[in-house]
């Protein structure tokens, strides 16, 4: 074997090691170096495309993956990644065709069954989506994730909480366009509407906690009324955006429930805007906040409204909560309901999503 091939192989193996360790920029660099030495090699094209897809650049991945498929039409890995790239770019029919080709080549690819199910759900083909998630489970796919997807289709019992890795991956991938999409496309006004009554009351808080702070949409409102502001979010990419705002005294990366379970400080203002739709059951949240919020402290949040069940997981994979459930939790854990408003929390396909804006005080 010649030295060029050996060097390309070394770069490729280094790229694999970086990829598996989650060091995506380094993996991209090594795969690109390997491709420069061995142009057109399907395995390198596929892996470089995969890493660019994971870096949130589906358009950059597409040409690489299509070149790999042109050379190896039954390359299930390349077909699956190419389908995922088309799906992220909104090319749903092309994505579905590629997923089907990938599964025809290798029916054991559980991750592709999951991607296919997700796409079919978005297309409103719920029975086919459920069948795909069942196939993913049968092929050894992530049981927590696929059962969560099935529950969103009412094809399985809803879990009490959303899978942590699902929420983190969702928002890590969403971070770059989060603010513009949420505020402009979905008419999201929750941070302003939730904090306006607090500001109007003129109260100054000692320490505000922004649960699920995301990119910091609530941050500057809280900064104006609190001496200290702490933000918590599961997504590192979201926290990078929030850091730039320079409105938080402290930012913590982690799961909301885990943070509350280990927190030592007192917070006389806790805000959770559009957070509990990804938490699910709120019993532990209320129980933990009862230890962290002092008397007369404020707890303000939004939920999507369920008119029937206490807690329901919708096809959007967002939980909805009933007013009676929230009132019961408040009573059980020493919170008084100060104010409650029925209002849309956002839009979905230009339709308002009914929600509850809730302001509570610690008794």
TrEMBL record:
The keyword NAD does not apply. Residues 209-301 form the Methyltransferase type domain. Keywords: Repeat, TPR repeat. The keyword Repeat applies. Pfam families: Methyltransf_11, TPR_16, TPR_19. TPR repeats lie at residues 8-41, 42-75, 76-109, 110-143. SUPFAM superfamilies: S-adenosyl-L-methionine-dependent methyltransferases (SSF53335), TPR-like (SSF48452). SMART domains: TPR (SM00028). GO terms for molecular function: S-adenosylmethionine-dependent methyltransferase activity. This is Tetratricopeptide repeat protein. It comes from Ramlibacter agri. The lineage of its organism: Bacteria, Pseudomonadati, Pseudomonadota, Betaproteobacteria, Burkholderiales.
């Amino acid at each position: 074997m010649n030295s060029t091939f050996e060097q390309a192989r070394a770069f490729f193996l280094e790229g694999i090691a970086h990829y598996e360790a989650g060091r995506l920029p380094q993996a991209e660099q090594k795969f690109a170096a390997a491709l420069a030495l061995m142009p057109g090699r399907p395995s390198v094209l596929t892996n470089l495309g995969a890493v660019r897809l994971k870096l949130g650049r589906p358009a950059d991945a597409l040409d690489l993956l299509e070149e790999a498929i042109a050379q190896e039409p039954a390359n299930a890995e390349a077909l699956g990644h190419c389908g995922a790239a088309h799906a992220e770019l909104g090319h749903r029919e092309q994505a579905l065709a590629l997923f089907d080709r990938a599964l025809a080549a290798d029916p054991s690819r559980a991750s592709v069954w999951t991607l296919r199910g997700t796409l079919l759900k978005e297309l409103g083909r719920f029975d086919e989506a459920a069948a795909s998630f069942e196939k993913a489970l049968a092929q050894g796919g992530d049981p927590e994730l696929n059962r969560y997807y099935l529950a969103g289709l009412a094809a399985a019992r809803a879990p009490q909480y959303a899978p942590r890795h699902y929420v983190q991956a969702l928002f890590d991938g969403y971070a770059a366009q989060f603010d513009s999409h949420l505020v402009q496309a979905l008419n999201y006004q929750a941070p302003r509407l939730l904090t306006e009554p607090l500001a109007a009351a003129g109260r100054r808080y000692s320490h505000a906690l922004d649960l699920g702070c995301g990119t910091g949409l609530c941050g500057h409102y809280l900064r104006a009324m609190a001496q200290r502001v702490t933000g918590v979010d599961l997504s590192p990419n979201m926290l990078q955006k929030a850091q730039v705002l320079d409105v938080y005294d402290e930012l913590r990366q982690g799961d909301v429930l885990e943070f509350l379970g280990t927190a030592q400080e007192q917070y006389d203002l806790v805000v959770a805007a559009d957070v509990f739709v990804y938490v699910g059951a709120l019993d532990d949240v209320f129980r933990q906040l009862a230890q962290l919020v002092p008397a007369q402290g404020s707890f303000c949040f939004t939920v999507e409204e369920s008119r029937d069940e206490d807690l329901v997981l919708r096809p959007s994979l967002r939980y909805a909560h009933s007013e009676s459930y929230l009132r019961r939790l408040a009573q059980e854990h020493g919170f008084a309901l100060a104010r409650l408003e029925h209002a849309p929390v956002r839009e979905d396909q230009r339709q308002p999503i009914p929600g509850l804006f809730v302001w509570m005080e610690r008794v």
